[in-house]
């Protein structure tokens, strides 16, 4: 009874879906009862701590751990020697969680200890002697690409070129996307503008530092508790790194205190397992904030060239971009996504985006909300804005004129299905915000953004209890209220009140494999699977009713939470509610549950348009956000409060990226601001209310029309704010963050 | 390692513990007393996730030593509800969906309670500045600020909740 796209799509009338129900984990989270990564302890538990490199790039000549091992209370010390051979696809992760031979960035792990107290662990760390030979380093993306740059990895030869180069390079790979004749397109333009932009690396900035509790026995079986966006991913990677059977490792996802993509990989988990194995005791590791900033994944810093041609009437004739992203010490930056997303908002005859994935002496980047797209949109939307200004055209009209729409060929290849970009632009144009007056030193910025969205492998189990309530097990950690939205979809489908369904995140031993909570996939894919599991259970309950009534199952229908004869011909039977059938389950064939195991396709792509007003203080360079409105297509908002929350949260992360946040490296290659005082994320007093306008253009790939909403909201803000600030300041800004010193410099004040 | 013996009061309960001299109050609450509702987001007083009230003052428990708790009255998130009856702020945070991941929520609730005990009619700007020491990465603060303003409004209207709050303040 699995849902098939294009068939029974787009249910339009809802009871529970679209309402603002209380969240199932709410009480625990307002009373302090909710258990996050660092909140669990185990009998006999040891504290694990990690020694980290003070150098950006150095050869490890030797590590002497003998004095650390002799500290009273220390039960295990591990180094890279404790991680044996592993499959190729996790080699970089193995090296990132524990340096082998070389340290590649300030903060790179080199050894770890487990001790009975934190003070003993700290003392032991100080006694580990590492002899380094310091090597030249490079942290800037453009510098790292130069032939003269220090080479991080002598075995790295640029992929994606016509000819494989003979010399190693920090450029890991070249990508290219697009179609049409770009140069011919540029010739048709009345105006071509080309600009170069730079953006600094930012961190996901989740408030909960990475943490885990590992408990591994000498029989090779282990339990692992951790804050992660994907405990099945943790099981897969850690079991591969530790040489275990996957099923020997049971991973339970704790409550997760924010992830934003940053918790889609492992950092401390394999180390805690290795320590636990060696000590035969449970080991807890909790990163400090400084470790989080130095050694868990930030996003890329970038350098981007964009060239766009436009006719006087606003028609874009061609778009061309070259994107250079450094993704830290290992290949795998999000540059392909950036290159694919750069021009996705525009229906273009000629478009090209070239991406370079570059390595540098910085922590290995991890996904950050629409990975790669915000920087690309920043560059493209800035040039579109400048063209509009030069040609005296309205920025929303120009976007409406060139907007991708249903069926248009995306700049990265496929043809779009039903999409909502135009609807968000029209909503923005009709909104009072767009007509509000501005004062001197104030400016308005507009930008659009796109994200692919993802479906992926998903497994859900729905159990009907004898009292007619529902236990719903999903395998996608809830990072923003998804238990409420998934439970509500199951309740809707079953026809029961939302509070009869309890949705939990099951551990890796209790459910089939689930992909990570990423790609804005959870409400879409786990929701789709929950609807399918509900339909599976409904089918079984209809069979039970048919048996009770002694009629064929095809003469039974399910409506408003009860089995009913499908027509008068089927006999005159009183409806059997879900609770009625559940109460008789034992006598009619045993427990009733519904399942769905699916590789979900049909995640509809997502678009947003953002409007922002800023005021620039020309004396101090301070930028104040005066007003901010998000218009985004949610397909169908299952829980509008949490959809608004995603819009608002993404916009504010974008505000931080645009105005304040940056990784600052010194000449010595060390991170100078590894703390929340100097790595300054937006605080309440920096901001106005963030108005969230939900646009609903249903996704034909989901029975209720859902599109993922989590990521698109961070794509437009960098550009929207830069366009607004550029307008307020009267000077085009081309570098982020637009911190006061940078703005004063642009204004010629310093 | 040498430990210091401390007698204190936590959420109205007389409490004794021993701790090392360099342990923070947050370490003691979380690791010695099992009160894990207070969170460590930074350990440097920048994020407010460990906010507690000490003798009526809002403090980051990561910036105070456990030994300094001697003879003090400490309120944590675990003491905010009156049994099964939520504090109005807790209820409004739920009603307004003022949390996503929820890890910053205990700190925001404790800080907001401290604000409303001093100012029962704060402006939006006053709420924003009072809560500027609490970091939230999920919500963009919009729904948090609305929840606090709405709580203040309701507490002003309802003499019962006002009285309860006043009583708790006297106790503190």
The gist of it:
The complex is a heterodimer of chains A (about 750) and B (about 170). Chain A is α+β, with helices and mostly antiparallel strands. Helix content of chain A is about 25%, strand content about 25%.
Structural class of chain A: alpha+beta
Helix content of chain A: 25-40%
Q: Which superfamily, in CATH terms, is the homologous superfamily of the largest domain in chain B?
A: [2Fe-2S]-binding domain
CATH homologous superfamily title of the largest domain in chain A? Aldehyde oxidase/xanthine dehydrogenase, a/b hammerhead
Please provide the ordered H/E string of secondary-structure elements of chain B.
EEHEEEHHHHH
Stated plainly, the CATH topology of the largest domain in chain B is called DNA polymerase, domain 1
Number of helices of chain B: 6
Count of domains of chain B = 2
pLDDT averaged over residues of chain A: 97
Evaluate the radius of gyration of chain B.
16 Å
Principal-axes shape call of chain B: globular
Question: What's the gyration radius of chain A in Å?
Answer: 27 Å
Polypeptide structure, described:
The complex is a heterodimer of chains A (about 750) and B (about 170). Chain A is about 25% helix and about 25% strand. Chain A is of the alpha+beta class. Chain A has three domains: about 5-35 and about 455-600, Aldehyde oxidase/xanthine dehydrogenase, molybdopterin binding domain (Aldehyde Oxidoreductase, domain 4); about 40-135 and about 205-295, Aldehyde oxidase/xanthine dehydrogenase, a/b hammerhead (Aldehyde Oxidoreductase, domain 3, Alpha-Beta Complex); about 420-455 and about 605-750, Aldehyde oxidase/xanthine dehydrogenase, molybdopterin binding domain (Aldehyde Oxidoreductase, domain 4), CATH 3.30.365.10. The model of chain A is unreliable at about 1-10 (pLDDT under 50). Chain B folds into two domains: about 5-80, Beta-grasp domain (Ubiquitin-like (UB roll), Roll); about 90-170, [2Fe-2S]-binding domain (DNA polymerase, domain 1, Orthogonal Bundle), CATH 1.10.150. Helices cover about 40% and strands about 15% of the residues of chain B. Chain B is built from six helices and five strands, in the order ββαβββααααα. Chain B has helices at about 25-30, 90-95, 105-120, 125-130, 140-155, 160-170, and strands at about 5-10, 15-20, 50-55, 55-60, 75. Chain B starts with a strand and ends with a helix. The chains are: A alpha+beta (about 750), B alpha+beta (about 170). At the A-B interface, α1 and α18 of A face α1, α2, α3, α4 and α5 of B.
